[in-house]
Design brief:
The chain is α/β, with parallel strands linked by helices. The protein is built from 11 helices and 13 strands. Strands 3-2-1-4-5-6-11 form a 7-stranded parallel sheet, with helices on both faces. Strand 2, helix 2 and strand 3 form a beta-alpha-beta unit. The longest helix is centred in the first third of the chain and has 22 residues. The mean pLDDT is about 95. Bound molecules: UDP-4-deoxy-4-formamido-beta-L-arabinopyranose.
């Protein structure tokens, strides 16, 4: 059975990807520092697949621990999620982001090269595109000046990966996510935002659950069809399945270049107000929200051209915005016992 290391495998996208990997017949070992999740997620994974993945608690900034792990584990591939990912926090604390996101990647790659582990999937983000010149966005859209240290760490990480591929046998696929939302249909795993949620959908579900008094909509004066920002909201389970396709592509030596990039989105843009309306239609309850000032750093509109992933990975999303919102609401009710 081929063994895959999933760093950040107890996190939101990581845990859904572990489920998809196990269902595809891979053995999974997880490294996570539990800074933004809970060890209980392991039980959630096991409830879905019946397989308890091996878990190693580790801070990937600890170079010795990382090296010791690679000296005692034989791996067929790595999917690297572990990183700090809050845009706002990265503006307040850039050095935490540069240290965590870049040192972790570098120590992993040093060991990949040393141990000749060649199959590496990187969790990137549509944030690297900044404010796009045209829509939908293709993978060869220009990489703009990052609007946050978080986005910059993703851009720098992709450059580090490209250079390492040129200088070694490493083969990398970077997956640029658009906006992951929703939860596994079982409601055994989902997004566990600690503290006040930064992202739209967890804030919506917490408002609907009565945890937040109301939702602030950051601006309705943008040049869009209803004045609110447009994003490409992709069901996290669809996103997880794309990671299995990507690692299989590398392990079956189907890749055309040592370094490949794919956009992972639905190809459909939805505005903030449209998401709110869709949520209200699904739950049958009205959401309390107010329009407030724009949030600094927000791009007006961004959604994916999905043709490359469809053609090359033979992957496209299967679930709709409504499916994702319904699963997010089911998860919220499960964790709040409502
Ligand atoms: C979506 C829209 C907000 C909260 C970020 C990262 C991206 C990825 C996903 C990691 C925007 C509006 C939000 C709220 C609101 N993360 N909004 N009220 O900023 O598109 O992307 O998360 O990879 O890299 O940049 O996602 O959910 O924060 O915002 O009106 O309380 O919802 O203004 O238009 P974003 P988001």
């Amino acid at each position: 059975m081929q063994k895959i290391l999933v760093t950040g495998g107890l996190g939101y996208i990581g845990s859904h990807t572990v489920v998809a990997l196990q269902e595809a017949g891979f053995e999974v070992v997880i490294i996570d520092d539990l800074s933004n999740t809970d060890e209980q997620v392991l039980q959630g994974i096991q409830k879905i697949t019946g397989i308890l993945p091996r878990f190693v608690k580790m801070d990937l900034r600890n170079k010795t621990e990382v090296s010791d792990f690679f000296n005692s584990n034989t791996l067929d591939g790595i999917i690297h999620f572990a990183a700090s990912k809050a845009v706002g926090e990265s503006v307040e604390n850039p050095l935490l982001y540069y240290e965590n996101n870049l040192h972790s990647l570098i120590y992993l790659l040093q060991n990949c090269v040393k141990k000749q582990i060649t199959n590496f999937i990187f969790s990137s983000s549509c944030t690297v595109y900044g404010e796009p010149d045209y829509l939908p966005i293709t993978e060869n859209a220009p990489i703009k000046q990052a609007i946050s240290p978080y986005g910059n760490t993703k851009q720098i990480s992709e450059e580090i990966l490209k250079d390492t591929c040129r200088a070694s046998d490493l083969q990398v696929i970077s997956l640029r996510y658009f906006n992951p939302i929703g939860a596994h249909e079982s409601a055994e795993i989902g997004e566990l935002p600690k503290g006040v949620p930064q992202n739209l959908v967890p804030f919506i579900t917490q408002t609907a659950a009565g945890i937040r008094p109301s939702l602030s909509v950051y601006g309705d004066d943008y040049p869009t069809r209803d004045g609110s920002c447009i994003r490409d909201y992709i069901h996290v389970v669809d996103l997880a399945k794309a990671h299995v396709k990507a690692i299989q592509r590398l392990m079956n030596h189907e890749h055309q270049e040592p370094y490949e990039v794919f956009n992972l989105g639905t190809g459909k843009g939805s505005s903030v107000l449209e998401v709110i309306r869709a949520f209200e239609n699904i739950t049958g309850q009205s959401l309390k929200y107010q329009i407030v000032d724009r949030r600094p750093g927000d791009v007006v509109a961004v959604y994916a051209d999905t043709s490359k992933a469809a053609k090359v990975l033979q992957w496209k999303t299967e679930q709709t915005l409504e499916d994702a919102l319904a699963s997010a609401w089911k998860w919220e009710r499960r964790i709040r016992n409502i």
